[in-house]
Structures are given as structure tokens and as C-alpha cells.
Amino acid sequence: MNTTQSNRITLEPFHHLPQILLSGDNTRTALILRQALAEEGFRVELAAGYNELENLWQQHRHPMVLLEVSGPQAVEPAIRTALRLKYQDPRQFVGYIADPLLQTSGLAGDAIFPRGSEKLTKALRRHFREL
Asked: Which of 16, 47, 103, 106 lies most in the core, judged by the most C-beta atoms within 10 Å?
């Protein structure tokens, strides 16, 4: 496992899985999700917050961006981040990781994935099989 100064983690990738850029309003939750995804073979780069996510995305243009939304207070900042990315590149995949209750709170993106580590990895694998 390789780690770098910017909290990036890269494992031997499954060649069919794209690099994921992950961030959220709750650092602890984002770390747990990053670890769970990495253990399942996903290549994950973790940004310390939505602002850092935008900076990293500008540098690397990750094929998939996931915004972890831990509660109602995070909906608006996550949506603003997603809209800024989509404004710069309408083809950019932006998904949310959110509880089912938040799925009706105005989250607008390419997909909404469940927050639980096991459910998330299964949903992402299913999503990539459908591509």
C-alpha cells in the first residue's frame, strides 16, 4: 500500500475500475469509506474537504467523484461542489454517498450510493458492471 502526503491511497487496481476521488463533510466517515473501498480493490484518492476535492480534481480529472453527505447540513455544500465540477465538465461523473433519507433532499448528480461500507462497495461494483 502506498500513501502520500495528500492522504492518497493506491492499491493494486482492478483494471476495469476507474480512479475515484472521494471527499465528505465528515473526515472520519470518509476515511472509513476510503479504507473499505481500497480493501475491495478500488483506487481511491481522499480529499480533506470539498475545496481540496476541487483542487485535486483540477489536477487529475478523476473519472469518478464521490461526495459523502453525512447529514442535512452537508447537502448544500455537496450540491455546490457538484455543480461547480459539472459546470467545468458536464461529462464528469459525480455521485453522492448518502443515507436514504437524504436522497429526497435535492441531491442532483449522476448517482446516489448507500453509505454503509458493504452496501457501497456492492453498489459501485454493480454500477461498473452496467457500464
From this structure: 47
